[in-house]
TrEMBL record:
Molecular-function GO term, any one: monoacylglycerol lipase activity
GO biological processes: monoacylglycerol catabolic process; phosphatidylserine catabolic process
Keywords: Hydrolase, Lipid metabolism, Membrane, Transmembrane, Transmembrane helix
Family: Belongs to the AB hydrolase superfamily. ABHD16 family.
A GO CC annotation given for this chain: endomembrane system
Domain of life: Eukaryota
Transmembrane regions listed in the UniProt entry: 86-107
Gene3D superfamilies the record matches: alpha/beta hydrolase (3.40.50.1820)
Protein name: Uncharacterized protein
Domain Phosphatidylserine Lipase ABHD16 N-terminal stretches: 39-146
Stretches assigned to the AB hydrolase-1 domain: 283-384
UniProt source species: Owenia fusiformis
Listed Pfam families: ABHD16_N, Abhydrolase_1
Length: 541
């Protein structure tokens, strides 16, 4: 469906071309188009508007019936709807509803056919589908419409991974014996059903129809601002599993911004969208930004399961490197919340990227899922998450050798395992601990862990006081790392700390913690100010 027509004077000129795809469906009858011309909101005529209302309410009724089916089906059974007479009644009712829906679609198509604005849009869309040139893309980009009709401009098959020459890196999965697998079949069946019904919707509510419908007006307004005010370029990518990924690119390379040569690839949270999500932070800081929506979110198709998430961010990275022209060392991966999974997977598979910045991110989904559910469900929840929603962020992050910054929300109420805002149970702490234990195993060990945990439980002022008690000197600590790197290497895990006394190792541990983590005094969903978005610490010579 067409909603908006953008101001043609504010739409960006494009410096890359896409790939032609066939036009599969008639826009006249299938979807809505929301356009702007010189900032104009598309206004459907009376016939189209009436039919849109009928179609919308019928879809809502179907969705409501689907989600309330566990309650409706027993009621229908008790009232005799599953008898022969009841079945006949249901078939008659469904037939009438189907005819009304089909007739509404036909009448809506007729209304659009008699709307000059819509006819002009369809002509431009058809030309773009037939021959997706720069000129046709520029014309099509003036419109905001249902993304299914937008041509695919970049496919995973065009990238380096398309020929299989560079296999994807994965963290090894835990294996089970045959006997253990056999005895767990009933539990695995329940886990599979739970994960693929309500489970993934709880983990990724942004992929539900209800959430997409609620935020649709805000997403439309967000895209309008990105296109008209920041000259954003919207592009459809095709992932390896044939999901269509909705992206938005804002190019700052030709501006006066000193950060414009760096591309920030963002990964949103479980109810975040690039139109209104964390992409705003690097944009405010003057970086070039490539935002994308998870599978099933807004214009992206598919289901947000781990494999599809990996394929989505993989094609986004290929697009950034092969089509937009950024080298890996010009790319920063920035993620908020659950977006840390895709960001760390990308970092693991593209280890030459410039840096990784993680905001309000956790180490592993399992402890959070277990903490939010009844205690009697712990075994089932643990099995379900491990088998089908295993978001092992810390394990993936440890495979990345570059600079990392973790931003912790001191009042975070979402990724804590105790009461909301309990900073000591913030799983961002565990992410930092696991990272430093991997990178500096001789420093962050049993002798320093208790002091490290104490530091993590303190407010920023108290952290500074604790560090002053241990007389931590930044210059001295930095010199120790420089000496070690000069004598050995900067590869991880580093063996620095071997033979050091406990007090010096505590000094180095707290020094590292203060460099790898920043505190933001806010709740989970508070937008991150651009001031907090910085390049991570690293040893310089």
């Amino acid at each position: 469906m067409l909603s908006l027509i953008y101001d043609s004077n504010k739409v960006s000129n494009f410096n890359f071309t896409g790939k032609k795809e066939g036009w599969k469906n008639s826009v006249l009858m299938k979807k809505k188009c929301s356009f702007y011309f010189q900032g104009m909101v598309y206004t459907p005529n009376g016939l189209e508007s009436t039919c849109n209302t009928v179609i919308k309410w019928m879809k809502f009724a179907w969705s409501l019936s689907y989600w309330t089916s566990p309650v409706l089906l027993p009621i229908m059974y008790r009232r005799g709807f599953f008898t022969r007479e009841g079945a006949i009644y249901l078939i008659e009712y469904a037939s009438i509803a189907g005819l009304v829906l089909c007739f509404s679609y036909w009448l809506r198509g007729l209304g659009r056919y008699n709307n000059p604005d819509y006819v002009a849009f369809v002509a431009i869309l058809h030309n773009a589908q037939e021959n997706f040139t720069l000129q046709n893309k520029a014309l099509l980009s003036r419109y905001d419409f249902d993304f299914f009709a937008w041509p695919v401009e970049y496919s995973w098959a065009e990238g380096q991974r398309g020929d299989g020459s560079k296999p994807k890196i994965q963290v090894p999965k835990r294996t089970r014996s045959f006997a253990d697998s056999f005895t767990r079949i009933p539990c695995d069946v329940i886990s599979y059903i739970g994960a693929h019904t309500f489970g993934r919707r709880m983990v990724y509510p942004g992929a539900t129809g209800l959430m997409n419908a609620l935020v649709s007006p805000m997403l439309m307004e967000g895209r309008k601002k990105l296109v008209e005010e920041r000259q954003g370029i919207r592009t459809k990518l095709l992932s390896e599993d044939l999901n269509e990924i909705d992206t938005m690119f804002v190019d700052r390379r030709h501006t006066s911004s000193i950060n414009g040569q760096t591309l920030v690839v963002t990964s949103e949270g479980n109810a975040g969208f690039y139109e209104i999500g964390c992409a705003c932070t690097p944009l405010e800081a003057g970086y070039s930004v490539l935002g994308w929506n998870h599978p099933g979110f807004a214009g992206s198709t598919g289901v947000p399961l781990p494999d599809s998430e990996q394929n989505a961010v993989d094609v986004v990275m290929q697009f950034a490197i092969n089509k937009l022209g950024f080298q890996p060392d010009q790319i920063v991966l920035f993620a908020w919340s659950i977006g840390g999974y895709t960001a760390t997977w990308a970092a693991m598979n593209y280890p030459d990227v410039k840096a990784v910045v993680l905001d309000a991110t956790f180490d592993d989904l399992t402890p959070l899922a277990v903490a939010k559910m009844p205690e009697s469900w712990q075994g089932l929840i643990r099995n379900t998450v491990r088998q089908y929603m295993h978001l092992n962020i810390a394990e993936q992050l440890c495979q990345y050798p570059g600079p990392i910054l973790i931003i912790r929300r001191s009042k975070d109420e979402i990724i804590t395992t105790k009461e909301p805002g309990h900073i000591g149970s913030n799983r961002g702490n565990d992410l930092l601990v696991k990272l430093l234990q991997h990178r500096y195993p001789k420093v962050v060990d049993e002798s320093t862990l208790s002091t490290f945990r104490l530091w993590l439980e303190l407010a920023r002022e108290d952290q500074i006081q604790l560090m002053s008690q241990y007389d931590i000197d930044d210059d001295y600590c930095t010199s120790l790392f420089r000496s070690h790197i000069a004598e050995h290497s900067e590869s991880y895990p580093m063996q620095i700390g071997d033979g050091m006394n406990v007090e010096l190792k505590i000094q180095l541990t707290l020094f590292l913690a203060s460099k790898y983590m920043d505190d933001f005094d806010a709740t989970h969903c508070t937008p991150l100010p651009a001031l907090y978005f910085r390049m991570p610490w690293k040893i310089t010579f």
